[in-house]
Amino acid sequence: MKSFSKINNIYFHFYSSVADWKYRHAGLMALSAIGEGCHQQMEGILNEIVNFVLLFLQDPHPRVRYAACNAIGQMATDFAPGFQKKFHEKVIAALLQTMEDQGNQRVQAHAAAALINFTEDCPKSLLIPYLDNLVKHLHSTMVIKLQELIQKGTKLVLEQVVTSIASVADTAEEKFVPYYDLFMPSLKHIVENAVQKELRLLRGKTIECISLIGLAVGKEKFMQDASDVMQLLLKTQTDFSDLEDDDPQISYMISAWARMCKILGKEFQQYLPVVMGPLMKTASIKPEVALLDTQDMENMSDDDGWEFVNLGDQQSFGIKTAGLEEKATACQMLVCYAKELKEGFVEYTEQVVKLMVPLLKKLITSLWWWVSVGLDCFISLIMKRVRVAAAESMPLLLECARVRGPEYLTQMWHFMCDALIKAIGTEPDSDVLSEIMHSFAKCIEVMGDGCLNNEHFEELGGILKGKLEEHFKNQELRQVKRQDEDYDEQVEESLQDEDDSDVYILTKVSDILHSIFSSYKEKVLPWFERLLPLIVNLICPHRPWPDRQWGLCIFDDIVEHCSPSSFKYAEYFLRPMLQSICDNSPEVRQAAAYGVGVMAQFGGDSYRPFCTEALPLLVRVIQSPDAKTKENVNATENCISAVGKIMKFKPDCVNVEEVLPHWLSWLPLHEDKEEAVHTFNYLCDLIESNNPVVLGPNNSNLPRIFGIIADGEIHEAIKHEDPCTKRLANVVRQVQTSGGLWTECISQLNADQQAAIQELLNSA
């Protein structure tokens, strides 16, 4: 770090003092390029670097000012969101001032581009204080540039300003409502009139801007313009067949339709007949590929949109990338429609599933190889987006198809099931694999018991066994690499990334097992036993904490869904689970505490002695001085919930009257929403049964109970649609009828708590 800082001091001095602008320009562009690779080294001196770069926004030469904008924009991306948190005041002011550089359009445009980078990753709370100033500058610049477009045909700055407006609205969300009417008329005017071929990028960006503003301000505000906007989009959509394949409006239109779907909800269904044709056409694009010799390469060198890999022997492999990004976007939009419209999308489920399922198989067996031999990383990312969208669509399409009845639903599941299982076994990219595994688990939850036949179970069991064995093998290999003489911080960083990726796949193994246990119950245990030794290995004391966490989660599911039969595995997991209640890792503590809770709730009589043994361990965690810190609170809340479940479901294992006052003092839970519902339901049980310990002499504990209920409401611990909310409201209403007691309870609450009680009564 010291040597890097010294080099930078020399660098800063040299490039800031030389007279030739080319050196200053080159230095700033070089600084833009090194941020990602030198992230760690630059972060410590970022304040010095930013102050240095901002000086060049005032440089006499426009290309230097351009390069300074470039450096600011790149750092805003490379160091987000810390960059925004540290430098928001000076950077926003400097970029807005640079956007006033009317004599140099490229500088203006690049200042706007840097502002886009900055606002995209800027926390909403930081941006809000600058909204008035941002809007003032953006609106005045838009008006000037719109006039220049009409008079001179110049559009470069306007394109970037429109995107800047979209980015600010996207970050500000509902706080953008007061500025909506300032921008929308001009934006609609651009879409309506910018119909010339040279303005199609501007038109596409404006369509994007309108849809992002609509999403930001919400349906109620946007509805005043929704009809006009939809007509403009429909007109463009009608002309889709006349657009060239590389027309930039296509991708903007596809994304805009998806945002309109989110804004309008069910009301968007009427537009599907117009939207779906072009969308399916784009999603069905097949990439052109070719194996070429040197002569062919020379003939095609000027052909736009091709990427090539040299295979040796004067041969090259080529793939035409035009349309691939649009294909990925279209697939993601189909996912959006299925998610938002649900049964309203049922008419299109068959054609969409026939499109999506082959994408899981074909891209794995062919396109991945093309990338692996060296094609551009950009293509790899596009392919990943397509496969992820294909996987994500599967459970959503099943949800859409429910309305057609069980026979139609089963046919659709049979069409996708084999492909999903095969993809889990063959997908080489861990990011895509995790999404496929997650979607497969969700599909099983939708379909339930009986959705997998013996062949499916056999194949799936072998794949999951292989994933677990690979997990252990990879850990061993990483340990060997840590002993290598070339081991250093960079190697460790790479190994940690590999470990994170492996652990994430382990979580998806857990997801699949969870869905199977919850659907099949104890019937599936004989199948599970082939995996049992590997799961037991996960919870051994010497394993890393993520292994122990997810191993315990799997046994938690067995206890919850397969009891009382689960007790036959008690020798493998009970002792590790009890020992893990006080583990150093909060994640492991949480998994162990949840396990004790489901033991009490579902485990049966065989688990009684272990519930008794667990109680003092749970209390020790709850009463720890740092129990409520951010990293510990979820584990602590699971311990509190587990104590409540022991009292409720295994009351003979504990002195309930002794423990209840302590348990009340630990409430409410508000981080773990699922466990909060359990605790509030048990609290309602106790109140409704007039439990004397909970209510206290002459109902003296009711003010405290009101405080618990109010704090739970403030922290949104329970959703208003949950039946528990109605029970809590009824408790409050019963007290409301007894004048003096009601006054006493309310008077002991602060203003926020009183408002929360009123909100609870209004919602239930």
Brief summary:
This protein has 37 helices and 3 strands. Helix 2 packs parallel to helix 5, helix 20 packs antiparallel against helix 21 (430-447) and helix 25 crosses helix 26 (545-562).
Explain what you see.
Helix content is 73%, strand content 2%. Mean pLDDT is 90; it is low at 1-7 and 363-374. The protein is globular. The chain has 764 residues and is mostly helical. The protein contains 37 helices and three strands. A hairpin with a 2-residue loop joins strand 2 and strand 3. It has a three-stranded antiparallel beta sheet with strand order 1-3-2, with helices on one face. It comes from Accipiter nisus (Eurasian sparrowhawk). Keywords: Cytoplasm, Protein transport, Repeat, Transport. Its main location: cytoplasm. It is found in: Cytoplasm.
What's the rounded overall pLDDT mean?
Answer: 90
DSSP, total strands? 3
| Strand neighbour order, sheet with most strands | 1-3-2
| Low-confidence sequence ranges | 1-7, 363-374
Span between N and C termini? 59 Å
Give me the number of helical elements. Answer: 37
- Helical fraction equals over 70%
Query: What would you call the shape?
Result: globular
Global Rg: 30 Å
DSSP strand content: under 5%
Largest sheet: 3 strands, antiparallel
Query: What structural class do helix, strand and pairing data support?
Result: mainly alpha
